[in-house]
Design brief:
Blueprint: E1 4-7, E2 27-34, E3 37-44, E4 48-49, H1 54-64, E5 79-85, E6 92-98, E7 102-109, E8 117-121, E9 125-129, E10 132-142, E11 145-155, E12 164-165, E13 169-172, H2 179-185, E14 191-192, E15 198-205, E16 214-225, E17 240-249, E18 253-259, E19 267-277, E20 282-285, E21 289-293
Parallel strand pairs: 14-21
Antiparallel strand pairs: 1-2, 2-3, 3-4, 5-6, 6-9, 7-8, 7-10, 10-11, 12-15, 13-15, 15-18, 16-17, 16-19, 19-20, 19-21
């Protein structure tokens, strides 16, 4: 909250009565008393910054870069994100899922060239954006208790010709799943019960088809043990690996696998998927997914 507010005044440091002004809806100025000196911010129409002097312009620049909300957010927010090539050329689909009853996610372009892109509601959130570096803001609401976080994220570009993998999705399921079904079923905390089958989903881009339009690739799933629940290394650390030769139509493949119950023992794992395009002998690997089976 500002230290002082004034209606129909252009600048509290250099007061000037705004003509034909009748309320704060027409013109309002806020004054902040800071250790570095006073900051005077002017609003026109109660929603637009209207710098009228060099000092106000400097103040507005400071205000626009400052996030000082006073709304408490004690909830510890948990979330994961997943990234895929969009059906729209040059666009990346970014999914977020958080704890709580509902959430809102916003991506701000750091270069200031794109309007903020936002999604809100319960469950899975989807933002389709051009590849770039963004400021990410996520707010979570759980029965009226709020949580939030802010960070910078890099949204990747998925080429039509270079071999690349989307994010890896793991869901408790005995059936092969499509993209959104797998994403909606993936636990927010990435904790999976033992004796439950796991269904994986990952998209492969930039495969090389043969004369018949078929692409051939080798895929390898690796579950690499990390620290156990008590903070010590597992007694016999050994990766659980599944690998196959596959083929698909065209340059893209929907790679899916159901892992039978008890094939992955209880523990913590870093899961990766690597693919070799057999036509070109080039390799790509997914980002790691850290999960717990217990």
């Amino acid at each position: 909250r500002p230290d002082r507010q004034a209606t129909c005044i252009s600048d509290l440091l250099r007061p000037y009565q705004v003509p034909k002004c009748s309320s704060h809806l027409d013109q309002e100025t806020w004054l902040y008393l800071t250790p570095d000196g006073p900051l005077s911010i002017s609003f026109w129409g109660n929603e637009y910054f209207l710098p009228l002097s060099v000092h106000e312009l400097e103040s507005s620049n400071v205000a626009l870069q400052t996030d000082r909300t006073t709304v408490p957010a004690p909830l510890e927010a948990h979330a994961w994100s997943a990234q895929f090539r969009s059906a729209e050329l040059g666009i990346t689909d970014v999914y977020y899922r958080t704890n709580g009853d509902s959430a809102a996610a916003v991506l701000w372009d750091t270069a200031g060239q794109i309007q903020p892109i936002r999604a809100s509601g319960p469950g899975l959130l989807l933002l389709s954006v051009p590849p770039a570096v963004y400021h990410l803001g996520v707010d979570v609401d759980s029965a009226g208790k709020l949580g939030r976080w802010r960070r910078d994220v890099r949204i990747p570009h998925f080429s039509a010709v270079d071999l690349a993998l989307s994010s890896l999705v793991l869901a408790p399921s005995a059936a092969l799943l499509d993209r959104e079904t797998a994403l909606r079923a993936m636990p927010i905390d990435l904790v999976y019960p033992t004796a439950t089958p796991l269904a994986s989903y990952v998209e492969i881009y930039g495969l090389t088809p043969d004369r018949d339009g078929r692409s051939h690739y080798h895929v390898r799933y690796a579950f690499t043990p990390v620290q156990s629940f008590v903070g010590k290394l597992l007694s016999n650390p050994r990766s659980v690996v599944f690998e196959f030769d596959r083929e698909s139509d065209g340059t893209m493949a929907h790679e899916r696998l159901v892992i039978e119950p008890d094939r992955v023992p209880a523990g913590r794992y870093r899961v990766t998927v690597s693919v070799i395009d057999l036509a070109r002998n080039v390799k790509s690997e997914s980002a790691a997914l850290d999960i717990t089976v217990r």
